[in-house]
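Hi R.,

As promised on Friday, here is the backbone we talked about, encoded as structure tokens. Could you run it through your design pipeline when you get a chance and send me back a sequence?
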């Protein structure tokens, strides 16, 4: 299933004056705020909005950039070198969006669960724990590693076994390293034709920094990942509406959301 970008939420709403007010609740002096498990953005009374929570499991072979992707979405430093994630790492990311049909503004809370490949293979309980009560799975491949794309079909079949209703989205990481690209547009077209899944693309480097030369620029960082967060919102929210019987299920399509 692929939801057309802009069909569920107002596209680029975060750039509007109203959207910027909501965005300010996840920023502090142009830096990203970081939220623990029981923390949430504080909205003034006139901007009251419901919070919608989703658990998302991040899957992919070792070294494709799972931890870097989550760090980028959360406004954290992207690691400069690969280190295998030990055990399960969870990260909470908030993102405001406005529904197209109702005009309601909502705050979406994403709980990302990232796990190292070695731990998944060693401990049988980790994959079930990551999938328990999950709403979606992000399958990552790296544009610099053709084998990571070739590995996706078996990975999708293995990881989604018994969980067919989970939203499945594919993300191509290291899109910024085009000089070292090992995955072609034809490769992607063949994959989409076969699997009918939405594909998003992400850079895997830190964004601009503030004047101190150390702190990441929160606004610029959000601009780099807005297309991914909006894509997650649209697919997960639409699936909720389908499960509630409020809208019909989409037929499988080949829609792709590229790097914005």
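Update: got your reply. Pasting your designed sequence below so it's all in one thread:
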């Amino acid at each position: 299933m692929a939801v057309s970008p802009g069909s569920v939420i107002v596209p680029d709403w975060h750039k509007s004056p109203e959207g910027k007010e909501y965005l300010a609740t996840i920023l502090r002096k142009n830096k990203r705020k970081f939220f623990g498990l029981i923390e949430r953005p504080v909205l003034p009374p006139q901007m009251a909005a419901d919070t919608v929570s989703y658990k998302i499991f991040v899957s992919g072979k070792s070294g494709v950039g799972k931890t870097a992707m989550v760090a980028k979405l959360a406004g954290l430093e992207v690691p400069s070198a690969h280190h295998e994630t030990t055990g399960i790492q969870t990260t909470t990311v908030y993102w405001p969006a406005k529904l197209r049909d109702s005009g309601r503004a909502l705050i979406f809370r994403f709980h990302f669960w990232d796990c190292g490949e070695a731990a998944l293979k060693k401990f049988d309980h980790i994959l079930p724990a990551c999938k328990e009560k999950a709403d979606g799975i992000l399958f990552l491949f790296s544009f610099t590693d053709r084998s990571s794309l070739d590995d996706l079909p078996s990975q999708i079949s293995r990881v989604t076994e018994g969980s067919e209703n989970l939203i499945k989205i594919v993300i191509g990481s290291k899109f910024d390293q085009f000089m070292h690209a090992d995955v072609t547009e034809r490769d992607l077209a063949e994959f989409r034709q076969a699997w009918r899944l939405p594909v998003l693309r992400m850079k895997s480097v830190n964004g601009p920094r503030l004047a101190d030369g150390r702190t990441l620029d929160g606004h610029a960082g959000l601009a780099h990942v807005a297309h991914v967060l909006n894509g997650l919102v649209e697919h997960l929210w639409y699936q909720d509406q389908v499960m509630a019987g409020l809208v019909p299920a989409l037929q499988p399509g080949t829609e792709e959301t590229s790097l914005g």
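One thing I noticed while checking it: The first helix runs from residue 17 to 23.

Thanks again,
M.
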